[in-house]
Amino acid sequence: MTLKARIEAAIAHSVSVGRGRGAPPKLADALEYATIPGGARIRPMILLSVAMACGDNKPEITNAALAALELIHCASLVHDDMPCFDDADMRRCKPSVHRAFSEPMALLTGDSLIVLAFEVLARVAHHDLKRVAHLILILSQRTGMPGGICAGQAWESEDVVDLGAYHRAKTGALFIAATQLGAVAAGQEPEPWEELGARIGEAFQVADDLRDALYDVETLGKPAGQDDLHGRPNAVAELGVQGAIARLQAILSGAIASIPSCPGEAVLAQMVRKQAERLTPVAPSVNTARPL
Amino acid sequence: MTLKARIEAAIAHSVSVGRGRGAPPKLADALEYATIPGGARIRPMILLSVAMACGDNKPEITNAALAALELIHCASLVHDDMPCFDDADMRRCKPSVHRAFSEPMALLTGDSLIVLAFEVLARVAHHDLKRVAHLILILSQRTGMPGGICAGQAWESEDVVDLGAYHRAKTGALFIAATQLGAVAAGQEPEPWEELGARIGEAFQVADDLRDALYDVETLGKPAGQDDLHGRPNAVAELGVQGAIARLQAILSGAIASIPSCPGEAVLAQMVRKQAERLTPVAPSVNTARPL
Questions:
Q1: C-alpha dist (Å) from residue A136 to A67, A250, B123, B228, B275
Q2: What CATH fold (topology level) applies to the domain B3-279?
């Protein structure tokens, strides 16, 4: 089974838990709509790669962790797309959840996905109580307040924005969760894995800024130029396209250098390089640059 | 320390976790605004009463469980009050969260409170990993899909409503959570405690219908007549005021009869009687009826 297939199977299984007996059918459909098919599944891919680099000796726990992380990510997309935030009509090349279903359904879909993430973890607790408790603690801290993606999103409504805290929480939190959850799922301590997650998150933010600046709505499957519209900080605005690409490559080199010593270190470095290639946009003026 | 003081201290402590270092200040304020001061704290009171009836031999876990349950309840109020649902201007005699802060803040406050509930539990896992994993599983199942309050709320958007599933999930779920979490926090199995929670939930729904029918907005601290407005099922509409009061008393007698054998059985029955008195409205035509 490829990594991608394993990830999709784990996510589909977790969503089926939420579908269960006696579920209100529209909400059950909306949970599936919001999660399948997904995007690049980059967060669970990172989580799984780290877990495998650390031995992946409790695969049921790894699978639950990567599904939980992706459910949280999908929940954040559903809520962020809603009219009171981005008011986005499209997501992943199809109508956003509140457009396809309704605003109440989108609100409940996000809520249900958040809850389901924790349920999916709690369901595998019998495989290793200590690891799972640790996973739940990390996932909650990287999702909620004061340092998770909820806090990150909230910074956009503050009068005075702490830019460092904003970026760390808004984009960085779930990438740090990805590396740390992967390590803990495989029985390792999370702390040595924070820097790798933080750097990948930073790279992802710069790549997102680049894509947002370079591509149109058809390529992205969502409205482009949202950052600019909302006045959020943006690497392209600060550094220009070439500057932002150089920055992206420097961050990813740093990410690879930060990988803790572990049995699968080389394979993991290869995965980060591959993600880097995927992330770096091919703009007319830069398509000769080979990332990393 | 009275039970009420213990409950308030546990909730205040849990909210302070969400406030933490580096939090966006408005969202931190909104979390506190949504949770303190609270309403009757009836769900944590039931949880604590059951835990004490079962010996309450891990009070740190009981405190986390009752705070987590109340955070979920508060989150549901914040989201249910939003414009896409009840569009309620007032809650607990003050402006609802989206009125006092903003709609984006209300959405994030609900999300953050849901996440915080699981974090608060995960933080006490070291006191007893097995109990806490079980608490997280129960709380998630009674909150999300397919049988929790998210599912309950979603039934209101379905074309064909399963009334039994609707009531069990919408109001019943967090009362069943209350009795089961109380039992598990004290090291007991949850199953024997389901009926008590279900019956209290049913009683609460009837009492809510009665209050909604009899009282005005000033007494309730929230808009009255919402059920009628939204065409939801209602005990007063079905049975009339006197019939609904008789029904309430019958349900509560059944609740007391269902209490499993435990050291604090008598005290627990007394608590349910007290809640019954509190719940039964004193309407001009019925103020001589003594409940139970």
A1: 13, 32, 9, 40, 34
A2: Farnesyl Diphosphate Synthase (1.10.600)
